[in-house]
Amino acid sequence: MPVLTLEQLNEFLAEHFPQGDQYGALERVGPGSAVMRLSVSDQHLRPGGTVSGPVMMALADVAVYAALLTKIGPVPLAVTSNLNISFLHKPQAGADLVAEARMLKVGRMLGVGEVYLYSGDASEPVAHATITYAIPLER
To answer: What are the two backbone dihedrals, phi and then psi, of residue 135, each rounded to the nearest 5 degrees?
Structure first.
């Protein structure tokens, strides 16, 4: 059972990270996991008609943040300390991006997660990221 439910996590993000909704919407959460979907529009595209790297990085980052919060609870000051992303394939034009995140390790001060990004109905990921979050000692 996650520390935060999907409804609680959506309420928390709306209050503490309202700009986050431009990076996608949470669809599911579980203990140490989160799935987010971004409905890609023209504002997310770069020249050439592909989703920009910063948009994919932001989706990945918020998905791991949500997965982390399912383990540690509502901690607004947990922050990204490292993000490494590999862009594997060009996303499909006009298709949603789906981020599937899971925590690999959650300690007292750091949480490490990974996320795969999928485009449309493709079975192969378009990107993979590992992300580390610094967790404040006082929660």
So the answer is: -105, 125
- Summarize pLDDT for 42-90 with one digit per residue, the tens: 777 778 778 888 999 999 999 999 999 999 999 999 999 999 999 999 9
Element containing residue 72 per DSSP (H, E): helix 53-72
Element (H, E) at 128: strand 127-134
Give me the CATH number covering residue 71. Answer: 3.10.129.10
Q: Which residues touch 69 (CB under 8 Å, ≥6 apart)?
A: 3, 4, 9, 12, 75, 78
Task: Tell whether 38 is covered by a domain.
Answer: yes
What is the band of 2 on the pLDDT scale with cuts at 50, 70, 90?
low
| pTM for the full predicted model | 0.93
